[in-house]
Every structure is written in structure tokens, then in C-alpha cells.
Design goal:
By secondary structure, the chain is mainly α. It has one domain. Helix content is 72%, strand content 0%. Helix 1 packs antiparallel against helix 2. The relative contact order is 0.17.
Length: 81
């Protein structure tokens, strides 16, 4: 479990660094962003990816036959990295 968690942490650090870079490259102006702002969608997608990886520590410790569908998706997301 410890080795898997280290891999998850490394992948999360990479994903979070990518999110910070995307956020820096697409700065927001003052006020509320428009609903269909493509730059905001890119930033939100990068943040969601980092959050999914960060919240997957519990799923790594479970037996594969006891994983929920959402946990299986998180494991496959980490495995694809």
C-alpha cells in the first residue's frame, strides 16, 4: 500500500503542478467569469483531475472486488498516468 500511495502522490504532484501552470497561463480578470468561458473550463478540468487523484488514497488500499464503480474509475485514472 505504501508504494502505491507514493506513486499516487507523485502523480498528484504532477497533476497539481499542471493545474497551477494552466491557472497561471489563463489568468482571470475581475468579476464573475462568463458561463461559457473556455479558459475557465480548461482550468476547472485540470483542477478536477488533480482532486480525483488526491482523493483516491482509500481506494488504493481496498481489494479490487470490493471497489465501487467510482473507485474503479479513480484507480483506472491513476493507472493511465
Amino acid at each position: 500500500m505504501t508504494a502505491l500511495d507514493e506513486v499516487r502522490k507523485d502523480i498528484w504532484h504532477d497533476a497539481y503542478s499542471e493545474y497551477k501552470q494552466v491557472k497561471k497561463d489563463n489568468p482571470r480578470g475581475k468579476g464573475r467569469p462568463k458561463k461559457d468561458d473556455p479558459e475557465l473550463a480548461i482550468v476547472k478540468a485540470a483542477k478536477a483531475k488533480a482532486d480525483e487523484i488526491k482523493g483516491s488514497a482509500y481506494a488504493l488500499g481496498k481489494a479490487p472486488e470490493h471497489l465501487t464503480e467510482k473507485q474503479q474509475l479513480r484507480i483506472s485514472l491513476i493507472a493511465s498516468q
